[in-house]
Amino acid sequence: MEFTKGHGTGNDFVILPDPDGALDLTPDLVAGICDRRRGLGGDGVLRVVRAAKHPDGVALADTAEWFMDYWNADGSFAEMCGNGARVFVRYLLATGLATATDGTLPVATRAGLVRARVDGDTIAVEMRRPRLYDTSHATLGGLTLPGMAVDVGNPHLVCALPAGIDLAELDLTRAPDFDPRVFPHGVNVEFTTPGGPLDGSDGHVLMRVYERGSAETLSCGTGACAVAAVALRDAARDTGTITVDVPGGRLTITVTEDSCWLAGPAALTATGTLTPTALHPR
């Protein structure tokens, strides 16, 4: 089985080319591929399949040739992955499977159509405008934090740390507890603290994230969008640009009246072949 490895600000993925949807991808196989000791290692798998050849993408086949079939590291599905979409676009361009007409490229996802804009090393993807819809809380190591529920095509809970709590000292080796009545299908939980002022930005936030189905990751694109939306709300703004620093690097989020642009670097780091039968079962 051919593969490519790529990452966006440290959020890493195994990319599997499967244009005609012939690959028998299963949760166990995905989990084996993403195992960091017995597999290739990754926060998730990106299967590259034509929209017309995938049941979740066929409705968008008239507007996007390619469907991003994204799986979490534990073998579960995810509706959307912002960094994954940026890496997916980098792969399409690098392999010649697509070209960015006028610098843009549409991609089909389970959360709908995503439009990408390419500018050198930076790839930006336009997603739905984040929707703040409820208050809730997360509990981590005996610390209960209020948070804001945000829909970015997938569920997020953004929790600002109180003064005196160091973001770097949080123990994210275990999943935070959350209210299953608010998040019946699980949730990505972001923990934030303010950053210093930056020129050209309406706000600056530091973030760590525990991703549903993948544990702590170095970056989460949709999570950064959720964090940016909350930061703008707290600043009494409807639109603007927020810089979000994650352990893997820096992302720039621009929230407009009707969408949200996530921008940052996306790189391909390796190609090769893997032997599925040699992967350790879950």
TrEMBL record:
Top-tier EC class: isomerase
Family: Belongs to the diaminopimelate epimerase family.
Organism name: Micromonospora matsumotoense
Cellular component aspect of the GO annotation: cytosol
Main location as per UniProt: cytoplasm
Key words of the record: Amino-acid biosynthesis, Cytoplasm, Isomerase, Lysine biosynthesis
GO biological process: lysine biosynthetic process via diaminopimelate
Pathway assigned to this chain's UniProt record: Amino-acid biosynthesis; L-lysine biosynthesis via DAP pathway; DL-2,6-diaminopimelate from LL-2,6-diaminopimelate: step 1/1
HAMAP family attached to this UniProt entry: DAP_epimerase
Name of the protein in its database record: Diaminopimelate epimerase
Gene: dapF
